[in-house]
Amino acid sequence: MPRKRPFAPATIHGESLLSGKRRPGVTLHDVARHAGVSSMTVSRVINDYAFISEASRAKVLKSIEALGYRPNAVARATRTGVVQVGVLYSNPNSSNLSAFLMGAFRKAGEIGCQLLIEPTAAHPTPARAVAKLIDAGVGAVVLPPPLCDDAKILKLLAAAGVGPVSFATARPSPGVTSVAIDDFEGAAMMTRHLIELGHVDIALVRGDPSHSTSTRREEGFRATMAQAGLAVPDAYVVEGAFTYRSGLTAASQLLGLRRRPSAIFASNDDMAAAVSAVAHGMGIAVPTELSIAGFDDTPVASTIWPQLTTIHQPIADMAATAVELAAGLTRRDADDEARKHVLAELTLVVRQSTAPPAG
Amino acid sequence: MPRKRPFAPATIHGESLLSGKRRPGVTLHDVARHAGVSSMTVSRVINDYAFISEASRAKVLKSIEALGYRPNAVARATRTGVVQVGVLYSNPNSSNLSAFLMGAFRKAGEIGCQLLIEPTAAHPTPARAVAKLIDAGVGAVVLPPPLCDDAKILKLLAAAGVGPVSFATARPSPGVTSVAIDDFEGAAMMTRHLIELGHVDIALVRGDPSHSTSTRREEGFRATMAQAGLAVPDAYVVEGAFTYRSGLTAASQLLGLRRRPSAIFASNDDMAAAVSAVAHGMGIAVPTELSIAGFDDTPVASTIWPQLTTIHQPIADMAATAVELAAGLTRRDADDEARKHVLAELTLVVRQSTAPPAG
DNA sequence: CGAGCGATTGATATCGATATCATTCCTTCT
DNA sequence: AGAAGGAATGATATCGATATCAATCGCTCG
Prior knowledge:
Helices cover 41% and strands 14% of the residues of chain A. By secondary structure, chain A is an alpha/beta fold.
């Protein structure tokens, strides 16, 4: 029985979507003809190849400009070979996931590589998720925390000859390419902000101890406090797990103290949001009676009210970089060790949850 | 001055990522050779072309199975022409964004089309965002609410010959392809759940009146209440705007009433989360003294505590479908009007925020 | 002054798939 | 029986780019 018409061209609402109608439509060959050189010369200019005369380069660039040429990533990928890059993610609810995906997919589209997204939650163990990606034939894998700190996973990948890229780890293994932020410095920035507002009694809600970032953030906090000559009582540092619920517990603990802190620095936004909720529940006004600071600048930070003062990380850009590194398409002289550990820039975002202490 | 080595092959950690090492490596031609037919026959089988003898089809399918062949989407896209699909999104904080992106990109990878994501917030008006996508040469655009209900936008697209796909609108225009849920039925499901628990005094927090979904959800709520013979006092239906902050206001209003409702149904999870926070603040126990219901099953629903009872929509699948429709690659006889309005399945997810009323 | 070498450029094959057109068989009809 | 037409298949060109190899073109050097 017949199933389809013989290769009916793809249309939508009667309009053909195929090449005949493609708007840009300018190819590398058009540029070559326009510039009076060969296609290869154009290709070389685009790819920033050495040994092109300045004259040729100029001609080609002018033609590219004149024709509005944009290289076709897909076509490029056919010849270079599609690099498949695996991306693991652990927490489907991670608020940064969408920014992460945006950046990762944008870059993937640009360089024409295929992304395989694999939720670790769908497998009995993270190792199984990695195995699945390896079986699928990926050439590299992007590992968000806490997987990036997992020696077993790294060994598994090494055995399969698949390159790992650590994402947002605070303690990058020396031999492993990584994209991260300086958690120590981020925590220090926020702590300085609170100190400058006049706070003295500052408490910290720690993150999940199994994440390397937790430790670094705590270190940044303590170092800055020490530098300012401020004491950090033991009671002012409580355990958390990066979850909203753990933030509720931590907040109850801190706000129940006889000598209540005037500011609470939570190691991430979810916990800061929980602190905010508890404070509301106890009738403590934010920020006049209590300043609350978060970390990550996830969507929740600007969702809740008052909006959270937090540390912004350029997650999308970082994800893009991670994918680029993973695809190994940086194409520069790769011996350069430095570019294998990329640190992204942090920003202190002051919103409505912090203010000078009362009295 | 030289910039790069002459086309240094892309490597990562010294391992080549290029075709020489590609694991799957099985091409259509390998399958053809194995099956003893021409490449075209294999291509036709893959594409479900009519007029293939059952014998050939069987042989090819067996070879595909034997060799573990998987078509290369990228290569396919070079020949068919890359279909660029634009995706607009309005709220960068929308909690469903990541699920949406996941689904959209997964499908895009499968069918080898390129997605252009454009935040409307980056433009003075939504129309400008649409114009940018049109200029970029997209063949179709996926429109989430409230853009999908905007006649001006639709006209703009029609003028450019770009096909629109409405996403999650409650009121699909007849001529426009759409992927949506039945908001009326979803609201009815949740209302029935509350009624079955024994609630009688049920309040509703409406959504943004400019979204068609708000109206449909309210209608579903009212219809179900009426069907159960329950009254809905005017004071029990308050305005909201789908934001956390609007939820705070609405909650204060409802929980301040002399005769307090025993259950509050918020038109989305963000507002439900706000209701939960206000209840905490007023010392009202959830769910024993107050049941709270949300809608959408966004990450926040399982983040906060107690976790929200809500209506789950398969956002990722819906996004995938939207992209598929947009790319116009369904390839089946497209005259079938029915498949142009896809309704996704809803699920009632009962968590800890609802329970029978006290007393 | 010719060999030798590096810089610069182009011709051609190729990537993995589909589009197009041609071809081979059968049926079936006149 | 021969023409006509449709089912089934294959040969070849093509998509837009890069890889490879060969060919120039100076220049320097012995």
